[in-house]
Amino acid sequence: MDNKYKVLFAVLIGSMLGPIDASVVNVAMPTFSKVFNAPVTTVSWVSMSYLLVLSSLLLTFGRLGDLMGYKSLYITGMGVFTASSLFCGLANKIGVLIFFRALQAAGAGMMMAVAPAIITNTFPKSERGKALGFNAMSVAVGLAIGPSLGGFLLTYYGYRSIFLINIPIGLLGMLLSNKVIPRFERKKKEPFDIEGAFLAFVFLFSILTFLSKGQEYGWSSKKSIFLLLFSIISFVLFILREKRFTHPMLDLTLFKNRMFAASNISCLLNYTAQYMMIFLMPFFLTKSGYSSSEIGIIMTAFPLTVLLIAPISGILSDKFGSLILSTIGAGISALSLVLLSKMPFNFRSIDVITRLIIFGIGNGLFQTPNNSAVMGSAPKDKQGVAAGVLATMRNTGMVLGIALSGGLLALRQNYYLRILPKVSNINELSFLYGVKDALFLAAFIDFLCILTSSTRGKNEESIEEDVFK
């Protein structure tokens, strides 16, 4: 096997671990509540702590990768992830589990922040899209097999197994990564911007907590207002710090590049729309009378389609560039969301599956070329930061999508409760109409993604070497 594909395989192991673990844990939430005798609000932090810490540290880890080397940070991250998985499996209190889930997220963040940088530095420009397509495919595989794997492990081996299974995979990944990933990066002798990293973490953690918990706390509650104000203040301080510091954690001149800025905004919009659909459809199907097992099978149509399309779109992006493919992909995604929002109430499962396949085709066409555009438009010495920004946009979009879904669904459901005839199933009807409206908003967000994607400018290959001269 060509060495570059050995490197890709090593990176794919880390790229798959995070999505698998996130989706496996979601399946186990009721089990945690029962085993630890903890309320749902407390148990939710098993998932929330992982998401918040992961999203808040990606920028920092991207910069650290540029400074200390991508290989070193990637292997360190896999080690932290593997060790914390062991302690998650051994946890005997819910607080201990939440703590080590946060630590596990830090390890996953190290891997996620530099994986695209390793791939970009390993493969030539003519094959970069294909390689990043396989990376996107590994994420889709993780998301697709996570729920079924979690159900199997919980049924036959107990909740501890969903964490302990990471240990042999992580150890194998560390050994392979140490052997095959080259130290091609040049360590930069620059100071690390500790103050900037702290302010970035505070900003991201507070704004993501606000978005995630705002509906639970109440959007106008003191806690929510404090989180929002705290995030705004920390963001302003972060920007001021980065502008005046000689070696900032996030080089703001990156965003002067239209390709880099438009591709990252497109990523944020795409994942916002995507996670609105992922959050809403299970509720819609449940209210329509489908069982949990049926919903699992139906929802798998989306990641499986991405799994098939992402590598193909990567190969095509190497030939045709990112602009056309990503823009068409965003358009197909928007169309599928409109079709989902207009679906009649007496639909069949095949109606949903068909629309989810269309959505998967659109997202598969969009993601890989867009990721390639981000990585290709950043200078060689800022590949880690570029990957960190991209991953931050992706995770922020996930949180924002769920927050928008919950908030809009509640508003529209209350609206329909007021205007619909007072029939016996008015609660179910108002809920279903509310979901349809929220899906239509997701389609509009993907329409905005079409606009930002289409304005990214010329192909990234033509600017890769002379950016920021």
How would you summarize what this structure contains?
This protein has 469 residues and is mostly helical. The protein is 81% helix and 0% strand.
Tell how many strands the DSSP assignment holds: 0
Low-pLDDT segments, ≥5 res: 459-469
Topology as a string of helices (H) and strands (E): HHHHHHHHHHHHHHHHH
CATH architecture term of the largest domain: Up-down Bundle
CATH class membership of the largest domain: Mainly Alpha
State Rg.
22 Å
Q: How much helix, percentage-wise, in residues? A: over 70%
Return the structural class.
mainly alpha
Number of helices: 17
Query: What is the average of the pLDDT values?
Result: 85
CATH topology of the largest domain: Growth Hormone, Chain: A
What is the overall silhouette? globular
How would you describe this structure to a colleague?
This protein is mainly alpha-helical. The chain folds into three domains: 189 residues, MFS general substrate transporter like domains (Growth Hormone, Chain: A, Up-down Bundle); 56 residues; 217 residues, MFS general substrate transporter like domains (Growth Hormone, Chain: A, Up-down Bundle), CATH 1.20.1250. 81% of the residues lie in helices and 0% in strands. The protein contains 17 helices and no strands. The longest helix is centred in the C-terminal third of the chain and has 37 residues.
